[in-house]
Amino acid sequence: MTEIQVGDGMLRLVQGDITQVAADVIVNAANSALAGGGGVDGAIHRAGGPSIMAECRSLGRCPTGGAVVTTAGNLVARVVIHAVAPVWRGGTQDEAKLLASAYGESFRLAKEHGARSIALPSLGTGAYGYPLDQGAPIALRAALDHLGTGEAPTLVTFVLWDNRSLTAYKNAISDLLATNEYDSARTVDSTP
């Protein structure tokens, strides 16, 4: 696990199953139809049970770069935020802006729902094809910027499925911290 202290907040990078993480809010890598799917989306729907899908159906759709909230069903979390990342189209269709927006909306909704902790996957870097080395810095920048405000949620955990993703996020956080743009951030613990 890698832990970065940012003011009174904490950013964690862990490898694991997001459905097993204890957090007030879990972010789902949703599609714009909120129709369920594979990967993180499928895992959250399976673990959370049918009440999440029923609520998604009642909501209808969510635009790319947006996010919506449902109950968490059988999950430990209080709510699930369904965030819609862009499909990678070579980087020429505002993908970076849309990905940053999906993360930003997730933090905004978590704050609105009184969350102290949030667990997020790497949005868009699976089936949607967003290059991991480009998506990780966007995700981490959104988290660091949020933590820099001092607002809740103050515990941000990126739950990464495999070692490749964890390594990309560790490399990206090292690069971001080396820029001195986030001078209030410091590494507390980093274990392999």
Give an overview in words.
By secondary structure, this protein is an alpha/beta fold. The chain has a single domain, classed as 3-Layer(aba) Sandwich (Leucine Aminopeptidase, subunit E, domain 1). The protein is 37% helix and 23% strand. It has helices at residues 39-48, 50-59, 95-112, 132-148, 163-178; strands spanning 2-6, 9-15, 25-30, 67-71, 79-84, 117-120, 155-160, 185-190. The chain has an 8-stranded mixed sheet, sandwiched between helices. Helix 4 (132-148) links the parallel strand 6 and strand 7. Helix 3 (95-112) runs parallel beside helix 4 (132-148) and helix 4 crosses helix 5. The N and C termini lie close together (7 Å). The model has no long low-confidence stretch (mean pLDDT 95).
